[in-house]
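::Amino acid chain::
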Amino acid sequence: MNWTPVDRMRTWGAGRTPTEPGPERPGASAKALQVARDAERTPAPLLRGERADFRALSFQHGSLHLASADELAWHPLPRGGREARDDALIFDGTRVVGRCQRSLIELPDGRLEAHHLDLQLIPALQGSGFARRFLEHGLGVYRANSVGSVHVSAGGMIGGYAWATAGFEFEAPSESAGRLSLEPSPAAAAACAIWESYGGRERLMAACEDSQAPWSLHERLEAYIASVRAGVEDVPTPAQLAGIGRRLSWEQADGPHTGRTLWPGKLILLGSEWRGVRSIPAQAQAEGTSAPRR
């Protein structure tokens, strides 16, 4: 399947940004809350005739609630198969505080894939456990509907780290097909890009200059990434990158992550972009998996 990058949604109202709530929308909020409650009581199947029905993906988390739509039309994909896409608002009471976009893809052979294209929540509500609930609820619905895998486009201020802790593997982009055998594997290229292209090297260098991390760690990581690119070292998982230097944590005193607890692996992933995939077993979820930390 050919993957096309999606323009990330940055606003949810005229003149609004993801740093503040949107305007009051009591009517839409009440309807969304009712959909979420109904979905948790009696979940509907994702496939309904020639339409897709995403209402089962609606849920509540504390004062937050998200309502996905029913009656979503399928659209053909260039290389076969079809896609239905939902763009849902997240409410806190009557105010819009976030947004998510995801799609269901039916491949030509009948297999189903879920794609989480974007998830936004205002900073004041990040860390509330909403992203964890979003993924856990979605996995249960996908499993019940024989969806075989969930794919994410990780990025933004914290998404590169958040999804790394949720059991995803690096996914090879479709444009990697036909690459020379001397080039790194697509998964290795994705892992190396976090260090080389998305500022991981520079962020850790700045932490070393501030004496938050030792220069020896920076040097070891430089050599390690070079070995991964050369095929000498195995490709790390996103979770393994996130765990680098976990014991060397500090409280960030300034910058965009002021007040957050950081460590080298988390710092490297913050601000990075990568695509991930997680298989969904047909039976109970495997032990030891976790959801994103937001």
User: Anything to note?
Assistant: Helices lie at 26-41, 130-144, 159-162, 186-196, 200-209, 215-230, 238-242, 264-269. The chain has a mean pLDDT of 80.
